[in-house]
Amino acid sequence: LPERSTNLLGVRHIVLVLSGKGGVGKSTLSTELALALRHRGHRVGILDVDLCGPSIPRMLRVQDRAVHQCDSGWVPVFVGQDRAIALMSIGFLLEQPDDAVVWRGPKKNALIKQFVTDVAWGDLDFLIVDTPPGTSDEHISTVEALRPYRLLGAILVTTPQ
């Protein structure tokens, strides 16, 4: 078994947000869910693993921020004056916010594993994981990387067709 990272030990619940197709509102739902949980007094983080379309930094108006390093890994970007929501996204690692990410599966999967093991989340009540559209390798990598932790469940976003 791979060694378990301690960076997620302070996270009480992890919720995946998934869909079978794009454009159904996963990122919007992830963002609104995080804001609603924060409004109720919970400590919240968002992990944006939609590597080809990282929209959450723009939704939360923090796309110009940078990720920094600490002894236990990457420090997520904190949203708002009260630093209410912790956010990690590949959008913070790109030179330009609209740069395309053209990576094969192994490189995407390695980054997802790194996001799970190397982000210093601290103590959170909820970590919302915004996934890419479809049922790709990224989903399998995300679930495999999160398996040792407290995965509360998943929200499946659909359309009424």
Automatic annotation (TrEMBL):
One of its GO terms (molecular function) is ATP-dependent FeS chaperone activity. Keywords: 4Fe-4S, ATP-binding, Iron, Iron-sulfur, Metal-binding, Nucleotide-binding. It holds the Pfam family ParA. The keyword Nucleus does not apply. One of its GO terms (cellular component) is cytosol. CDD domains: Mrp_NBP35. GO terms for biological process: iron-sulfur cluster assembly. PANTHER family: CYTOSOLIC FE-S CLUSTER ASSEMBLY FACTOR NUBP2 (PTHR23264:SF19), NUCLEOTIDE-BINDING PROTEIN NBP35 YEAST -RELATED (PTHR23264). This is NUBP2 factor. It comes from Onychorhynchus coronatus (Royal flycatcher). The gene is Nubp2.
